[in-house]
Amino acid sequence: MQAVGISFVEHHLTIEQLKDLYPDSYIHHEFPERSDGLHSEEARPFCYFEVLKSFTKLLPSKAIVIRDCEEKEVNTEDIVVGDLVIIRSGSRIPADIRILQTNCLTIEVSEVTGKKTPVECTAEAAAPYVSVFDSRNVAFKGSYCTEGDGLGIVIRTGKFTVLGGIANLHTQIPPTKSKLQAELRTFAQFISVLAICMAVAMFLIGCIVAK
After folding, report:
1. Please, what sign has the CA dihedral across residues 20, 21, 23, 27?
2. Percent helix, strand and coil across the chain, each rounded to 5?
3. For labeling, which of 87, 163, 174, 189 is most exposed (least CB within 10 Å)?
4. Helix extents (H) in 114-161
5. Is residue 15 pLDDT above 80, yes or no?
6. What is the model's pTM?
7. Which residue from 95, 140, 97, 101 is spatially nearest to 118, judged by alpha carbons?
8. Looking at the domain assignment, is residue 26 inside a domain?
9. Are 4 and 162 a contacting pair, CB within 8 Å?
10. 130 lies in a domain?
């Protein structure tokens, strides 16, 4: 799991630093809710939206973003890095998001990270020694908002999210055979060899009898 999140640095950054890192998002560092968000022509998604079927229940179909200085509902696959996403109670997180503002925002992350306790989010930067999984300022794609609301900037989408990384790891793991399958395969090989031996023996006996 740590390998999946090794590229994350945004949880260590302050909102002022995030503003510099994502200039096209026009983040208002004092009042994030007043941010302009991306311009529509700048919001061009990467062509990737393949996740294992077992993860599809974690993916929302729609999300609310701020673009062109107004709230817009967009398809999840149209979300891009730099989008400002509004998070509300009862909604799924559509991408990996660095929290910019929170109003009692609580995120259930157990289905993504395995943590059983919901995370009370903060907009404050995490200490340098804190991993992205232990930080409280990143909402992972597929997690669930159980309480409160907030605003965040998209920092990872598609296969580059933690959920996408987990899905990729699953696709790289070769399927394992059960003990029963292995025994059946061995038995089938034994029967095949036995049948060949019997056929050869019958052929030799036939030749001897013919003489």
Report:
1. negative
2. 35, 25, 40
3. 174
4. none
5. yes
6. 0.67
7. 140
8. yes
9. yes
10. yes
The reply to whether 91 and 154 lie within a common domain is yes
Is there a single domain that holds both residue 110 and residue 77? yes
CATH number of the domain bearing residue 72:
2.70.150.10
Give the pLDDT of residue 97: 95
Predicted local distance difference test score (pLDDT) of residue 50: 44
Instruction: Tell me the CA distances in angstroms from 168 to 115, 159, 161, 179, one per residue in order.
Output: 20, 7, 10, 26
Least reliable range by pLDDT among 39-53, 82-96, 118-132: 39-53
Q: Which of 139, 158, 162 is nearest to 149 (CA)?
A: 139
pLDDT of 18 reads 86
Tokens linked to 68: 């062109």
Return the closest-CA partner of residue 97 out of 89, 112, 87, 108.
87
Q: Is the alpha carbon torsion for 158, 162, 165, 166 positive or negative?
A: negative
Q: Which residue has the higher pLDDT, 111 or 175?
A: 111
Residue where the block lists tokens 């669930």? 144
* Number of H-type helices and E-type strands within the chain: 4, 7
Mean pLDDT (whole number) for 190-196: 80
